[in-house]
């Protein structure tokens, strides 16, 4: 922590650093804070009880007197000339939220390892952050001017610069989130959907120690805490697209997420755009799992659902009473006609009626293409056969001659949560 403070002070123009506020989240060693407060420009605030990342950061931001806030983790080291490029972008447009390139500091040796400047932040439908490479076209464009800012759909979380007035106008952090996790997702959605932008500034670099485990406890378990926080973000900002998250993480449906009325009110007051706008304008690369029927979930016949029956690669599928919690009954019909269960697709192995359908690795081949027809029939794209459940007890789901009068061929796409 002392090294982090000195890296900020020694590698920044003195007039640009008004103060460094450290928030001690009720640690076991308050004497460390007393020692750190002796450093020039450092002010230590100690919580009276454990508050977690979000409430601690809001407390630090509220105490700050400067007009621009820079959030850093305690396990960081700022590189030379790291601050000026960040402040310049915010000075030009206070609705920009900007991040440095995050280099790696080895936890074991403290070796400093430069990260690629061709990365941006993204996520998948399980709402887990991931780094992803810019497209080939973007990388080629950047060769002409490698200093240009990189628009990013999501920030990693710990390190960013934001105008203080804008931070307050935007609703700070969701202070009902606990401990750690999901806050970067929530603030990223909020910035983009409510009129701001997120950028990575390649001329700014800050090293970060990536720890192998959390040095603190999660009351109720880290998985439950992360799911609770993530559910709050999804329920407020993702509209009906939240069902893709629940499809990917079915157990999250059972985690209470608390009251979100104040966050929904904030969304209305700020006239924030819908999540469909975010997908179209900010993150069009995120593949939407389903088309027909909106966000997917189950394929139903009465009270029964299409079920993998626990089978995996090259296994058949059957019918089982619907439980609406995903798992073996989690299916999506994609825009290009694939019926997916995680990474497997429902496949017609032979072009013949009576053939048992199998789950095989999705490769987009012709025998994996289906069409959902009016009336509920699911017809193969190449030959006139439809998914039929009449032999499910003996052979699983088969492909039979299409007949709209047969109940065993009528399927209903049911969206979880609707």
TrEMBL record:
SUPFAM superfamilies in the cross-refs: Nucleotide-diphospho-sugar transferases, Ricin B-like lectins
Top-level EC class: transferase
Cofactor: Mn(2+)
Swiss-Prot/TrEMBL keywords: Disulfide bond, Glycosyltransferase, Golgi apparatus, Lectin, Manganese, Membrane, Metal-binding, Signal-anchor, Transferase, Transmembrane, Transmembrane helix
Cross-referenced InterPro entries: GalNAc-T, Glyco_trans_2-like, Nucleotide-diphossugar_trans, Ricin_B-like_lectins, Ricin_B_lectin
Domain Ricin B lectin stretches: 296-414
Gene Ontology biological-process entries: protein O-linked glycosylation
Gene Ontology molecular-function annotations: carbohydrate binding; metal ion binding; polypeptide N-acetylgalactosaminyltransferase activity
Biochemical pathway: Protein modification; protein glycosylation
Pfam families in the record: Glycos_transf_2, Ricin_B_lectin
UniProt topology in membrane: Single-pass type II membrane protein
Superkingdom, natural source: Eukaryota
UniProt-annotated location(s): Golgi apparatus membrane
A Gene Ontology term for the protein's cellular component: Golgi membrane
EC numbers on record: 2.4.1.-
Family statement drawn from the similarity comment of this UniProt entry: Belongs to the glycosyltransferase 2 family. GalNAc-T subfamily.
Name the record gives this protein: Polypeptide N-acetylgalactosaminyltransferase
The organism of origin for this protein: Cotesia glomerata (Lepidopteran parasitic wasp)
């Amino acid at each position: 922590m002392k090294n982090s403070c000195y890296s900020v002070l020694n590698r920044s123009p003195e007039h640009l650093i008004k103060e460094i506020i450290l928030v001690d989240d009720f640690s076991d060693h308050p004497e460390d804070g007393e020692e750190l407060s002796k450093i020039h420009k450092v002010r230590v605030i100690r919580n009276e009880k454990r508050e977690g990342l979000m409430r601690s950061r809001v407390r630090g931001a509220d105490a700050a007197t400067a007009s621009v806030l820079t959030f850093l983790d305690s396990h960081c080291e700022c590189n030379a000339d790291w601050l000026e490029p960040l402040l310049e972008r915010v000075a030009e447009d206070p609705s920009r939220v900007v991040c440095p390139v995050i280099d790696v500091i080895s936890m074991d040796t403290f070796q400093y390892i430069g990260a690629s400047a061709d990365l941006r932040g993204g996520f998948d439908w399980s709402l887990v952050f991931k780094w992803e490479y810019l497209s080939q076209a973007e990388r080629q464009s950047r060769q002409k001017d490698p200093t240009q800012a990189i628009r990013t759909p999501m920030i990693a979380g710990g390190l960013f610069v934001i105008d203080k007035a804008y931070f307050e106008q935007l609703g700070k952090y969701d202070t009902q989130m606990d401990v750690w996790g999901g806050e970067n997702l929530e603030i990223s959605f909020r910035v983009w959907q409510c009129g701001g932008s997120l950028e990575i500034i390649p001329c700014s670099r800050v090293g970060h120690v990536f720890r192998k485990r959390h040095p603190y406890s999660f009351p109720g378990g880290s998985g439950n805490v992360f799911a609770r926080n993530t559910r709050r973000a999804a329920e407020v900002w993702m509209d009906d697209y939240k069902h893709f998250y629940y499809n990917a993480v079915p157990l999250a449906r059972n985690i209470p997420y608390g009251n979100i009325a104040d966050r929904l009110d904030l969304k209305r007051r700020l006239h924030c755009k819908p999540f469909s706008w975010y997908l179209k304008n900010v993150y069009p690369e995120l593949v939407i799992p389903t088309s027909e029927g909106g966000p997917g979930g189950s394929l139903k016949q009465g009270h029964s659902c299409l079920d993998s029956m626990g089978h995996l690669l090259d296994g058949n599928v059957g019918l089982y009473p619907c439980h609406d919690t995903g798992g073996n009954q989690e299916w999506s019909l994609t825009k290009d006609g694939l019926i997916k269960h995680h990474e497997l697709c429902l496949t017609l192995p032979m072009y013949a009626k009576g053939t048992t359908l199998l789950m095989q690795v999705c490769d987009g081949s012709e025998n994996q293409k289906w069409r959902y027809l009016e009336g509920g029939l699911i017809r193969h794209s190449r030959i006139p056969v439809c998914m039929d459940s009449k032999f499910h007890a003996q052979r699983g789901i088969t492909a039979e001659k299409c007949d709209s009068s047969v109940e065993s061929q009528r399927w209903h796409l049911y969206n979880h949560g609707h």
